[in-house]
Design goal:
The protein is mostly beta strands. It has two helices and six strands; from the N terminus they run H-E-E-E-E-E-E-H.
Length: 109
């Protein structure tokens, strides 16, 4: 970093990335007890979101996933994603009860 000023030339563009990672991974369980991972893709307003759902078996419209932040209700299948109903706004819920998703090659929390 100390050499950076010497490496930059007039007209160079330096961009700072100050984005933060959302805790978009929420763990839960189906009524049967099966473990489920809910991964936030996009908030859809006050109490809905598009999510990926990973679990060992298929999921049914109308079923609920119990999480530490309350129930996640499966409303509609949207291709590879699910539209879900939440008990709180998506970003608030996931930030409070979720985890940062890590790539599979990172073997620590």
């Amino acid at each position: 970093m100390r050499d950076l000023p010497e490496l930059l030339l007039p007209g160079d563009l330096l961009i700072f990335n100050d984005t933060r990672v959302v805790a978009a991974r929420l763990l839960g369980a189906k009524a049967s007890g099966g473990r489920v991972e809910v991964l936030l893709e996009r908030s859809l307003g006050a109490d809905q979101a598009l999510v990926q759902i990973k679990g060992s078996k298929s999921h049914l419209v109308g079923s609920e996933i119990a999480t530490a932040g309350g129930a996640v209700r499966l409303l509609e299948r949207c291709g590879d994603l699910w539209r879900v109903g939440l008990v709180a706004p998506a970003l608030e819920l996931f930030e409070a009860f979720g985890n940062v998703p890590l790539p599979p090659y990172i073997r620590r929390s």
